[in-house]
Amino acid sequence: MTASPATPVRRLNLRPRAVLWVVAAVSVPVFLTGALPVAAAPQAALPVPKLTAQTAQKGGPGSGSSSRQVDVLTATREEVTQKIQELDAQYAEQQGAVAQAEVAVGLANEAVGRARARVTLAENEVELARQTVRAYAVEAYITPPAEDALRVLSVGQADDASYANEVIKIMADDRHKVVDILVGKRKVAADESATADAAAAAAADQVAAKQAQLGELEGIRSEQESLAAELDDRLDAALAEAAALAEIDRQMAAELAAQETALRKVSAVPSPRVQDVAVPAGAAPVGTVPANGPAPTDPTTPNPVPGAPAPTSPPRTAPPATSPPPVPVPSGGGVSVTSVGGITVNVAIAGQIRGLLDAATAAGFNLRGGGYRSSAAQVATRRANCGSTYYDIYQKPASQCSPPTAIPGRSMHEQGRAIDFTSGGALITSRSNPAFVWLSRNASRFGMYNLPSEPWHWSTNGN
Q1: 163-178 per-position pLDDT tens digit
Q2: Domains of the chain: total
Q3: If phi over 0 gives left and psi between -120 and 50 gives alpha, with beta otherwise, what is residue 334?
Q4: Both 88 and 179 in a single domain?
């Protein structure tokens, strides 16, 4: 039996489709070796909170606000207390910012993990599609599509050419679909990879923001540390002043010591270093005192405050002939002192103090007071309240003694260069006191300056 003339025509109609499929099947392995295309943009933005570094905040490091703006030694207690409260508030606020940064970093890392998991899934699907395409390519090489068409045409059920044509079309379409699936999976994998890269970049931003927040927290903690050190110095000066003042006004001396000790206790004592703080759960509360206290400094020599040279006093009126001459009195600690108008002072400033007292007398003020105070008694008190080692006596902060006790040598009284003035037998405790007003206008002419927080205290350097 010979084939009908229509049969070769049907076969020729099938060849273009079969040839096209063969070309596609052969080109797929080459296509598979190429790199994944880079997607223009991720499919969807990841829900990662945005957190930016809050540097240069009001009152924070970098904004120019620091504890140095308040001279703790000379400021009033109200000013110092306000500074303590400001630092406490800044520290608490920044701890909250660090906690938020920690949460943001965690969420960003989770987003990266989810994105990477989707990339892995997409890549697995691409690999499955590749394997299917490879299998079809191998099949096409072993059994070319033309032979498939011949087998279909030889099947008994294929009684007419249209049925055979449809069967071959279905076979070709099935093989074309797997290529389309491969291309689609590759696109999905590329998009997921871009999304994961975006998530990783967002996570890196969150980590940088957290580091900035930690740096801000460390800056505030350093300010607290500086303020605490300055408050220790202030407490030392106040306790030394109270010790000297006790000879004149014991009640005022006790009040001064109690007020300054209370101020130091409520101060913002630094918490542990930032790298030791677990954020947010393990953060130590503000106001805790390290058990071992501040690290001691090198105990090779004592650290007394050196006395400033007395400034040259301006010309003044000669004292009355009835004024008693300075009377030398026993001194200790290498300080040469003398008595001027009943006030014991360093011999280096005796002349200017005589001029000041005479000028005050002429203005109607009877100024007296306490001047030089030996450090020997302070050393004995420190040994009893602070300990017997060199560090205990000369370097341990006053706040760590029980009760708080000033370091010897920190007071200008121990150099004979400070005076706690009384007027008419009463300590000058108010800046509105007429004697204080006169001193504020005239004392500088004689090289004496007031410590603003203590109206009665005048010295050669204002401390």
Answers
A1: 666 666 666 666 667 7
A2: 3
A3: left
A4: yes
Q: Is 150 within the bounds of a domain?
A: yes
Place of tokens 């006596």: 393
- Residue that the structure tokens 């101020």 belong to: 263
What is the token pair recorded at 68?
Answer: 């140095």
Secondary structure class of 238 (helix, strand, coil): helix
Contact predicate 239/86, CB 8 Å: no
Residue 304 has a CB neighbour count (10 Å cut-off) of 16
Q: Among candidates 220, 391, 223, which has minimal Cα distance to 303?
A: 391
Determine contact, residues 347/336, Cβ cutoff 8 Å: yes
As a whole number of angstroms, the distance between CA 328 and CA 374 comes to: 15
Give the integer Cα–Cα distance in Å for 134 and 126: 12
Q: Express each pLDDT in 142-168 by its tens digit.
A: 767 666 666 655 555 545 656 666 666
Instruction: Confirm if 426 and 358 have CB atoms less than 8 A apart.
Output: no
The answer to the question of residue 294 being in a domain is no
Q: How far is residue 163 CA from its own chain's centroid?
A: 81
Same domain (yes/no): 21, 111: yes
Q: What would the two tokens of residue 359 be?
A: 């000028």
Residue pLDDT, tens place only, 385-398: 999 999 999 999 99
- Residue 147 CB coordination number (10 Å): 11
Domain span including residue 392: 376-410
Residue 30, judged by CB atoms within 10 A of its CB (0-12, 13-18, 19+), counts as exposed
Compute the Cα dihedral for 434, 440, 444, 445 and give only its sign.
Answer: negative
**Contact at 8 Å (CB) between 73 and 463?**
yes
Nearest to 208 by CA among 47, 25, 52: 52
Coil vs helix vs strand at 338 = strand
The pTM of the full predicted model, rounded to 2 decimals, is: 0.56
